[in-house]
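User: For a benchmark we're assembling, each entry needs the component sequences followed by a predicted structure for the full assembly. Here are entry 17's components. Please fill in the structure.
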Amino acid sequence: MSHRARLLISCPDRPGIVAAVSQFLFEHGANLAHSDQHTTDPQGGVFFLRMEFDLPGVDGALPELEREFGMLAGRFDMEWRLALARPRKRLAVFVSREEHCLLELLWQSRSGDVPADVALVVSNHETLRPVAEAWGIPYHHVPITSAGKRQAEARQQALVEHAADVIVLARYMQILSPEFVGQWPSRIINIHHSFLPAFAGANPYVQAHQRGVKLIGATAHYVTADLDAGPIIEQGVERVDHRSSVEDLRRIGRYIERMVLARAVAWHVDDRILVHGNKTVVFA
Amino acid sequence: MSHRARLLISCPDRPGIVAAVSQFLFEHGANLAHSDQHTTDPQGGVFFLRMEFDLPGVDGALPELEREFGMLAGRFDMEWRLALARPRKRLAVFVSREEHCLLELLWQSRSGDVPADVALVVSNHETLRPVAEAWGIPYHHVPITSAGKRQAEARQQALVEHAADVIVLARYMQILSPEFVGQWPSRIINIHHSFLPAFAGANPYVQAHQRGVKLIGATAHYVTADLDAGPIIEQGVERVDHRSSVEDLRRIGRYIERMVLARAVAWHVDDRILVHGNKTVVFA
Amino acid sequence: MSHRARLLISCPDRPGIVAAVSQFLFEHGANLAHSDQHTTDPQGGVFFLRMEFDLPGVDGALPELEREFGMLAGRFDMEWRLALARPRKRLAVFVSREEHCLLELLWQSRSGDVPADVALVVSNHETLRPVAEAWGIPYHHVPITSAGKRQAEARQQALVEHAADVIVLARYMQILSPEFVGQWPSRIINIHHSFLPAFAGANPYVQAHQRGVKLIGATAHYVTADLDAGPIIEQGVERVDHRSSVEDLRRIGRYIERMVLARAVAWHVDDRILVHGNKTVVFA
Amino acid sequence: MSHRARLLISCPDRPGIVAAVSQFLFEHGANLAHSDQHTTDPQGGVFFLRMEFDLPGVDGALPELEREFGMLAGRFDMEWRLALARPRKRLAVFVSREEHCLLELLWQSRSGDVPADVALVVSNHETLRPVAEAWGIPYHHVPITSAGKRQAEARQQALVEHAADVIVLARYMQILSPEFVGQWPSRIINIHHSFLPAFAGANPYVQAHQRGVKLIGATAHYVTADLDAGPIIEQGVERVDHRSSVEDLRRIGRYIERMVLARAVAWHVDDRILVHGNKTVVFA
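Assistant: Structure for entry 17:
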């Protein structure tokens, strides 16, 4: 995988894009491993492309490749990026008191199912320190008070700025400020314990129980300034019934949350997600 | 099945209910085929019981059985009913222009998967008359105008009052008045083309497409005066992705709608649903 | 859609294929609507490509386009075909006594969810004649006797040879001879009422009940000379439990069968399936 | 939960069983919390009953309760047992080199989702010692050689005999002898990495890949002398497609395996499973 890279593109759709891009990669000696594309409309829509390719020495050649591709990109008015498959991306996992999502990420990181490293854990509580430390992961306790939120976020930013490529809110029960979020566009992933947009806001399992739904869900989404309304990456549901107590919903929910979050993080670190307005294109 | 009946009970939970009811049925010569129960809380909750039993000659013996059970029921402060498995219940299917839910009910009625008969079809359009008549089902066109809604509902009521046991809104795009709904408590089933409470109201597939959800659903519920908020009977979902257009969502939605509606109707006509406040207990 | 066509390719994987093909289409004025590709191995594997494109006048230009593409195809050692999206493909549906799969195909054909036409129904029984004729579809009764199987298949072939593009075995309970099957390579789709390879052969629901499985399924596959072992196109499952009788399994199975078969047929008529050895590549 | 117990019964079906049992519990002051029943046939079938009840002091009163119930049980020819909800059951987890199922059981035990304690881990390798010891669980390395299998099993039996209530084979890659299995009837749970009976035996993911299936699964079952053929407790599946390599199947499979195994163990320790011949009745 050390020779592998990914090219992600979005641009106005028009004929010839795939021909030009694949010709470019071919001429530079790249061998296409996967290619996915999507257009919102062949006439005047937006075109999305992800090409995963093998090119010996791509890590050293990246700056040159980027410079040359920039010229082609200009012709098609592309937003684009080239990303190396290696090294693995670094996760900063933010947690509060619940361990299930953190544990899932730790295990899937070790197994390789989420091809990324948990670089550090940040929490507003001490609760999960033993979990992180048992895995040899640095754990930072950053308490949040309403008065000191600004300073707390400054400290969080200092911790993660150079240490992580993506922030994962793994049942982190604090709301990040728009200023903090603005520093990590499409790079903070949250797991919301509901099938959004149903039951946005607090206590979704209590809400779900009161409404008597027959399925409950969870939603992984990018965090934007608009709480619970960022671009949805992945959703999952499980059946419940009249016998399910609120505690049962929480138990079943834990299972959905960790699966949905792990899938979303895996797609992100594999550069499979393109954000377009308030929606995602996921080349799963 | 001609000797089969069902006893449905809800009452304050306290010790001895199952003992008393099962003793009653045993002494009257009934043989228990299925029994399901649920309590919202063993201490001071509400208790629900459904017993399906075989008793030769139960149809003739029903009035006597009801009279005797009434005495026991009084001791436990029960709401209850006895229902014969035969004859099959009669459905009045209300439709507008879309055929998929009607067709599913017609097929499943014929196959026995929904053990009920479609007695008549009522529509505010002529569109589906050929479908109904190809199956030999009476079709009644009752146009709805804002001015004439009262009279239209009077005509609908006259059509169904003695002809049907339950009304199924199979993509019927008109809102029934609280007065009409009040005549059919827990006996009107609607299919809403969304995973409620997400995307209540009009055009849920358009809403879902705009929000970029990764799963879409449908909800079968009893109709109450409060639009889209009646007790949920069943829900289903299917995966969608960025490639799904609004028309794709409608197509996938049609499939979910007919499956969810057919399951809900099958449970209703099998007397498997108890309504409790705004929720259902479904002994599926 | 009248200007739409699809190009399907399989060939040894090597660099430059996508560049060459997309350049070819671009130079011929085609606008790419969808593109999917797969390689079994970037090093020495087999490469599969499906490109769906819009090209005004493609129906008239097809022979010329095929001639020119043939030269490019030769350079890459491709197996390939160009297929017009219109007119819709014609289905010959073979049935025995059960109607559910036939009904599903008739309805999905009418709704457009399966974008194909049911051209004729062929059966070894008279049972479903009323169903087909209610939809205005020609129905041909071709009885099968062990002595007369050869003649029966000759008659079937005469019926479908020029009238249909694909044969769908919609719960057709007769085994076709290798000779007949050989005339329709990758163009006969069967629905097997089991999650293959579990419970191959007769009476899978009885087998499943005896084994006490907790999920039952159905499998749509291309028919080859090797019974129940052809390339799998699609599979589906549903939960069952200890309460499920063999008849319940059949009922739940009917539902899975018609959904799985309809999906498989829709993919086939959309030219989304490439067969490779005993497996399928489905660009769903 | 300390006053909670469960009564499990199987016997020939005949009228009056529920009446007699519920009357018995009522007279002894028990308050029914849940009740589930099943009959294979109301006429001459086998009847299964599970009643979960609250009775203050039930732990002390158990011997007396069992003695008295034995008389009633005799009248109905019952197989039965009374089980206390507390203390939690003790698991002996047998592993080889793969950690995912062990980790899942450790987490779910801690969260209470599997209400049982992992008492010890037994392995034919040293690989997972660090995992177990990080959780403070005793780890016993019992190497298996073909010559020394008999002694190894004697040592395993000595380890678990008084320390565990149930043995969980969590990807334990050795075959237990019929003699060992015979000591733990319906108390050894295995996870088979396939949707049985498809792909029984070795390397099911390789088999599945070769066959080109579109769904893969896992099966939790009780271990009997007949390899991979014991009573099925639970099964799960996930979608795969042509892009899935054998390694992808293993990855997806790990996820299914741990979920299916955890569900099966949770049901077992909640006394929700009755074995009948080669099948299970699971009152989930």
